[in-house]
Structure to design on (403 residues):
């Protein structure tokens, strides 16, 4: 859907304007690259395991790459039973009609999700001369598409869940909430320069717009995954950037203290029934700190299977402990020294070599053959000694005398 200038005030109100600007500057996913990094994700630590230590996408990365605010309310509540859980809520489809002015036909609905094609056909172009209420309805539809396809896409990627109705009903409050594969790929390019495509040197805001138009090839995916996997296995600490020097293009709103202090916060990240852990105490080099040996990671395996299915509920009560973690986030901000060289300490590397999941490639690809001496009997292997060449009378003998 095209970003209409008339939507901008509503997008700014919702804190989504910078994300919306990426709409015409997206790039294609490099599937082998992303797949090789996804293999590195360890759910037990909520980080990527690399040969030299752990790393992850932090709230700072979300702010820099997508231009999103990170301090605000958790994105939670309920999925469909709006009339039961929210003051002023309506039965789902009645509220949908009130907010968007139209209902999708039954063949465009699957349970509580609407086909993206219907949104695009119905709200693709806001009419010229539309009144304010019509523009607001089109802006709501645009925001639902933005959230459902770019920020919180489902597995199919072609339907929009109506869980977003309470959020678009109060656009003026939406900027107080904090929240795709594009984020992961852009983070890889910025964090690991060796994987960056050539010819994308200029950058602006948000940072992921740097890769606008990038279109990797789609052939030889299997061999390319193996190649990227091996390249990751051979990474050294110097191949990862500890702190991005991009302050000259960062929007001032993102640098407000209430946002920046949360970049170093160990807390829960919530999306309705889904809870993830912002485990930045395991990735201090990304902030310019030295990583000490790690403590055992928080075990939240029992939360990994929760997706909201099995009946709607008020998740702030059902998962109260984790919501309270986010509410008290200011109490869990890390304090550590920033150093010129945040390379891993010897103490940490010794620990990591014992406990980390460092390599994924077969050992035959990782061994350095230069370190293996040639055995004395190597010259005797084979069918036998190469016979001497027969001399030709009219050709001079230019062989070196080795005696």
């Amino acid at each position: 859907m095209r970003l209409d200038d008339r939507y901008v005030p509503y997008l700014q109100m919702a804190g989504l304007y910078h994300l919306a600007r990426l709409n015409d500057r997206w790039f294609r996913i490099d599937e082998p690259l992303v797949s090789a990094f996804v293999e590195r994700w360890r759910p037990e630590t909520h980080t990527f395991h690399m040969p030299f230590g752990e790393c992850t996408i932090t709230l700072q990365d979300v702010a820099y790459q997508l231009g999103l605010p990170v301090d605000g309310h958790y994105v939670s509540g309920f999925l469909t039973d709006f009339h039961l859980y929210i003051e002023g809520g309506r039965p789902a489809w009645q509220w949908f009609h009130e907010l968007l002015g139209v209902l999708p036909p039954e063949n465009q609905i699957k349970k509580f999700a609407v086909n993206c094609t219907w949104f695009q056909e119905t709200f693709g172009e806001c009419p010229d001369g539309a009144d304010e209420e019509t523009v607001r309805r089109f802006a709501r539809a645009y925001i639902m598409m933005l959230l459902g396809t770019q920020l919180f896409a489902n597995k199919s990627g072609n339907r929009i869940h109506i869980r977003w109705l309470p959020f678009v009903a109060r656009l003026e409050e939406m900027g107080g909430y904090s929240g795709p594969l594009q984020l992961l790929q852009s983070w890889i390019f910025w964090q690991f320069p060796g994987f960056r495509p050539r010819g994308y040197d200029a950058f602006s805001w948000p940072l992921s717009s740097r890769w606008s138009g990038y279109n990797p090839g789609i052939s030889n995916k299997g061999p390319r995954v193996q190649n990227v996997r091996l390249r990751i296995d051979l990474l050294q600490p110097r191949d990862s950037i500890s702190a991005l020097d991009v302050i000259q293009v960062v929007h001032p709103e993102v640098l407000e203290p209430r946002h920046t202090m949360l970049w170093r916060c160990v807390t829960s990240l919530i999306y309705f029934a889904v809870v993830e852990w912002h485990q930045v105490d395991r990735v201090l080099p990304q902030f310019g700190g030295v990583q000490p040996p790690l403590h055992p990671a928080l075990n939240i395996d029992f939360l990994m299977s929760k997706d909201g299915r099995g009946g709607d509920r008020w998740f702030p009560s059902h998962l109260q402990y984790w919501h309270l973690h986010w509410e008290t986030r200011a109490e869990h901000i890390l304090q550590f020294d920033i150093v010129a060289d945040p390379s891993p300490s010897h103490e940490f590397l010794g620990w990591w070599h014992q406990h980390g999941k460092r390599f994924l490639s077969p050992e035959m690809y990782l061994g350095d053959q230069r370190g293996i001496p040639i055995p004395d009997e190597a010259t005797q292997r084979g069918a036998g000694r190469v016979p001497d060449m027969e001399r030709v009378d009219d050709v001079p003998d230019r062989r070196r005398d080795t005696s």
In short: The first strand starts at residue 41 and ends at 42. The chain is about 35% helix and 5% strand. The two ends are 82 Å apart (CA to CA). Residues 1-73+175-392 form one domain.
